[in-house]
Design brief:
Layout: H1 2-20, E1 29-31, E2 34-39, E3 41-43, E4 46-55, E5 68-71, E6 77-82, E7 88-92, E8 98-101, E9 107-113, H2 114-119, E10 124-129, E11 134-137, H3 149-168, H4 171-185, E12 191-193, H5 197-206, H6 218-227, E13 234-236, H7 237-261
Antiparallel strand pairs: 1-4, 1-11, 2-10, 3-4, 4-9, 5-8, 5-11, 6-7, 6-10, 8-9, 12-13
Helix pairs in contact: 1-7, 3-7, 4-5, 4-6, 4-7
Length: 266
């Protein structure tokens, strides 16, 4: 317990350290796999999906707000574009999407302009994240401590594979991914009646994961979702989304501590 507290404090310290070392390359991030794909939600001319991520390098500073990332291996991120006829085209997501830090090291926003998506002949799209996917920060000029090729190779291969057991395959990770999937499917703001939430849940999750299914993460996601509801008749979506963001990030933060505790050489 004491070690977990120390590591939790280290997370807070990492953010403080980042403010002093903003010119040094930040952490490489692991992206949790979603092989069924994350639907892109379009608003204001931008189509976006939220990726659940965690930190692979505790010795490097956390990413600052809006830090740009790129796929470490292009084949691990696939953009699936679908037209009105249902025909699908698969493209390397890194060639068409932008990946930006969204909430520390726990979430990354993957975006594409709606105009660009339409120019590619698509009316909707989803992003597939494959096993062992990771994201590396875009290099900055005059970086006093840049990522080296050897460092990138070690982190995105050996350390990323280590994360499969301690993060990717856990029930908590599955719960976090379902919360991110549900949150991405909700409208950005406005009021909604409580009686509509089951329909929204089924629309976002139930098509692929039947609500009666006994599968990792489903019960935890539903419990976290219900915890964000306060029993009133209607809700502001912005407040609900913030609550689910907190639930999602808390799960990944604790998983990241487990990963650090069991990292080779720790």
């Amino acid at each position: 317990m004491r070690r977990r507290f120390i590591l939790a404090a280290a997370f807070a310290a990492a953010f403080t350290f980042a403010s002093y070392k903003a010119d040094a390359a930040p952490q490489i991030l692991a992206a949790l796999p979603v092989e069924s794909g994350i639907d892109l939600n379009c608003s204001g001319g931008i189509c976006a999906a939220e990726l659940s991520t965690y930190c692979l390098q505790r010795e490097r500073p956390a990413p600052s707000m809006g830090t740009a990332y790129v796929p470490a291996k292009p084949e691990h991120f696939t953009l699936v574009l679908t037209n009105d006829d249902g025909a699908a085209v698969r493209l390397p997501a890194g060639d068409h999407m932008t990946f930006l830090e969204h909430r520390g090291f726990m979430a990354v926003a993957a975006t594409i302009e709606l105009g660009r998506m339409k120019a590619l002949g698509a009316t909707n799209a989803k992003l597939v994240v494959w096993q062992n996917a990771s994201l590396i920060p875009v290099p900055e000029a005059n970086d006093p401590n840049p990522l080296t090729d050897d460092e990138i190779a070690y982190v995105t291969d050996s350390l990323r594979q280590h994360g499969q057991s301690y993060v990717d395959k856990t029930t908590k990770a599955a719960t976090a991914q379902l919360l991110a999937k549900l949150n991405s499917a909700l409208p950005l703001d406005g009021a909604v009646e409580a009686r509509n939430f089951d329909g929204m849940w089924k629309s976002a999750i139930g098509d692929e994961l039947p609500l009666s299914a006994d599968m990792p993460g489903l019960t935890g996601a539903r419990d976290a979702f219900n915890e964000c509801l306060d029993g009133t008749a209607s809700y502001r979506l912005s407040g609900l989304k913030r609550c689910m963001d907190f639930q999602h990030d808390d799960l990944l933060r604790n998983l990241n501590i487990d990963y650090w505790q069991n990292q080779p050489g720790s």
